Amino acid sequence: MKTSNIPAIGKTMLITSIFAFSALNYGFKAEMSEQEWLNWSNKCLNVSFNPSGENNLKKWELNLTANYFIRLRKTYQQGKQEYFSFNLHRVTNIDYKAGDTTGILKFNTQTDDIIVQTYEDPEGNIDSMATSLGLPVHNMNPARFDSLKNALNYFRTKSL
C-alpha cells in the first residue's frame, strides 16, 4: 500500500489501527494482569500444541501453572503416561523451528532442569532429567510465537 498521499495524521491512525487490531487478535490489552497473561499463555499453548504425530495418544494435558511451571502429561491408549515439567525460571532459551505447517517449540534450561517421567511403561518406569524439551506445534506464525515468547519471558522474570 502506498502511503505517500496519506496525510501524516492518517498515517498515524492507520498504524495505530493496525497495532490495535494485532493486539486484539492476540488477546492483548494495554495493561494485562498476571492472571490474564497466564490465561492467554495457556490458551496459546493448548491451541498450538500438535499431538497428531503420536497416533496412539489417548489424551494430553499441557498447562502453565500459577507458580511458573510448564507441565505436559501424555496418556497413551495402552495406559502408558509420559510427564514433563520445568520451571520457567530455569529456561535459558525459547526457540521455534518452523516447517511448512507445523514446527517445534523448543525450551532449553540451564542444566538438567526438566523432569521426565514415565508410568505404566511395559519397558519400565523411568525418572530422569533433561536439558531441552521440544513441543510439536501448528498454527504458530511468527507473530504468535513472538507474543508467546514475550508472555513466557514475562513469567521468567517474575520473582519466586
Question: How would you briefly describe this protein structure?
Answer:
The protein has 160 residues and is of the alpha+beta class.
How is the secondary structure organized here?
Elements: H1 8-25, H2 34-48, E1 57-64, E2 69-76, E3 81-87, E4 91-98, E5 102-109, E6 114-119, E7 127-130, E8 132-138, H3 142-156
Antiparallel strand pairs: 1-2, 2-3, 3-6, 4-5, 5-8, 6-7
Helix pairs in contact: 2-3
Alpha-beta content class: alpha+beta
Overall tally of domains: 2
- Strands of the biggest beta sheet: in what spatial order? 1-2-3-6-7
Report how far the terminal alpha carbons are from each other: 47 Å
Helix content: 25-40%
| Gyration radius from CA atoms, angstroms | 19 Å
Arithmetic mean of pLDDT: 84
| N-to-C series of helices and strands | HHEEEEEEEEH
Low-confidence stretches: 1-6, 8-26
